[in-house]
Amino acid sequence: MSSVLGRVWRARRSLSSTTTTTETLVVYLSRALSTSSVNSGVDIRAAGASSSSLSHNKPLPLRRDPKGRNVQWVFLGCPGVGKGTYASKLSNLLGVPHIATGDLVRDELASSGPLASKLAEIVSQGKLVSDEIIIDLLSKRLEAGEAKGESGFLLDGFPRTIRQAEILDGVTNIDLVINLRLREEALLAKCLGRRICSECGKNYNIACIDIKGENGNPGMYMAPLPPPPHCASKLITRSDDTEEVVKERLRIYNEMSRPVEEFYRRRGTLLEFDLPGGIPESWPKLLQALNLEDHEDKQTAAA
Question: Is 195 a catalytic residue?
């Protein structure tokens, strides 16, 4: 594992020696659709390579001050697992932009732009947005960030297919891929309990998930995340958070995105992290797995 991590950190340090990675990525992605010959149907499991990944039971052995570091991390996991929540918290901690393709899609939907009607149909059916649309939206977001002087990224929702992973791998070094996992019964309940304040746009969850341990499997408790009083009367449900659509999203994820996990597992940069519960239980353990500390979180807990 140490050789893998050494390669990861060496790759990170080498990024500043040439044109910025973000700028290169913008150029590459803008050309990817016309120049890439990657076959999105490639089954990498047939390659027969050994599957090695980093266990979250073994923290990363390097402790470094994250401030100022241009980390390039990817978050994987089923829809609704909490990628956005934990990527956002890490973004604040590391000082690196969190780029969520789901947010890019929702922003485009709200903009009434040329893609809005097409996206509305795709999202309502629980289907994956095409590579062409995602790459177009991501390119625009990276270009805007480059103009503002952003460097590094936490990608959430990209790559979702082998083709996207190959495109990303062809232009930049991904330091670490964090694969968040949650048992399916908890995941379904969590998705169906999601609510959004129609006024401020913040996310809440009304589900109280209490799964008893049995057959050697540990129990799990995830407390609801209720809104403050001023948001309580303004909660709405996302149009795609129905049981039928959620199950379809999970089916498509298993079919299209599970191979992406294997793609990064073979490269030795995949960190498997099983969420033990809600944010209070999971956040400290995720930080431990990443060998990071959240001093503000500790001060809040001690207050």
Answer: no
